[in-house]
Amino acid sequence: MTTAALAEQHARQSHPAPSSLPEPGYAARLAHVSKSFGPQQILDDIGLDVAPGEFVTLLGASGCGKSTLLNLVAGLDRPSAGEIDVPGGRPALMFQEHALFPWLTAGRNIELALKLRGLPKSERREEAERLLGLVRLRGAHRKRVHELSGGMRQRVALARALAQDSRLLLMDEPFAALDAITRDVLHEELTRIWAETKVSVLFVTHNVREAVRLAQRVVLLSSRPGRIAREWEVGFPQPRRIEDTDVAGLSVEITEQLRGEIRRHGRHD
Ligand SMILES: Nc1ncnc2c1ncn2[C@@H]1O[C@H](COP(=O)(O)OP(=O)(O)OP(=O)(O)O)[C@@H](O)[C@H]1O
């Protein structure tokens, strides 16, 4: 299935049943989650809460199971053991590939997500314009995907994810394919949008500086199997810059730990 089709299927399934139960104190909870593919154990005994409105980055070496973990939280796959609870219903998803439908305009891509959410037709255009404004693309409603730069496509993809109105946003290396300057700008935008919308974010990356630049909490996964190796609370005020001294200092510390994990994993092979 293409990423676009996967995103659509996911959006179709993403509407929580209304509930009168009291809100739990987390946007996502993973308890003793393990995942194997055949004989290969990828994730082992993961315990993680994402608090409502929290921004968590999940960091780890290539192949350690970050995307696997995100897919489990998204409900695209099931854990081999353990429990995952996402009380606000299916989360919104954003990938490295924009997953926009190329035959639709930017605005129509967003309106489709609004339609799948159940928003009446009469309200979709205005809401799509509002979301385009939120990602600073006001006026791009009629643009086709091929007319947009990589950074603009990711802005539209972000607007489309926000159109689902989910309480949890899952992001899998959404800026990895962008040049450093565009990425920097999108970091700023994402930080602003997160503060404005109060959405909870679980953001996967293998870029340590990006993890520290964005997050309130950085969670480091070990490799083979992926376990939570360590966590850091990042207390520096936002907006941060990737070149800030405190961001750089903590990044050095985390990189050291990540290198240790990679060395340890190498010895086990
Ligand atoms: N559906 C699948 N079937 C079999 N193996 C899989 C499947 N999905 C992932 N894997 C394996 O699980 C391991 C973890 O993959 P995953 O994509 O989660 O890692 P990652 O940390 O996101 O890597 P990267 O940073 O390179 O994207 C890899 O060895 C991968 O080959």
TrEMBL record:
<dbReference type="Pfam" id="PF00005">
    <property type="entry name" value="ABC_tran"/>
</dbReference>
<dbReference type="GO" id="GO:0016887">
    <property type="term" value="F:ATP hydrolysis activity"/>
</dbReference>
<dbReference type="InterPro" id="IPR003439">
    <property type="entry name" value="ABC_transporter-like_ATP-bd"/>
</dbReference>
<keyword id="KW-0067">ATP-binding</keyword>
<dbReference type="InterPro" id="IPR027417">
    <property type="entry name" value="P-loop_NTPase"/>
</dbReference>
<keyword id="KW-0547">Nucleotide-binding</keyword>
<keyword id="KW-0813">Transport</keyword>
<dbReference type="InterPro" id="IPR017871">
    <property type="entry name" value="ABC_transporter-like_CS"/>
</dbReference>
<protein>
    <submittedName>
        <fullName>ABC transporter ATP-binding protein</fullName>
    </submittedName>
</protein>
<feature type="region of interest" description="Disordered">
    <location>
        <begin position="1"/>
        <end position="24"/>
    </location>
</feature>
<dbReference type="InterPro" id="IPR003593">
    <property type="entry name" value="AAA+_ATPase"/>
</dbReference>
<dbReference type="GO" id="GO:0005524">
    <property type="term" value="F:ATP binding"/>
</dbReference>
<feature type="domain" description="ABC transporter">
    <location>
        <begin position="28"/>
        <end position="248"/>
    </location>
</feature>
<dbReference type="InterPro" id="IPR050166">
    <property type="entry name" value="ABC_transporter_ATP-bind"/>
</dbReference>
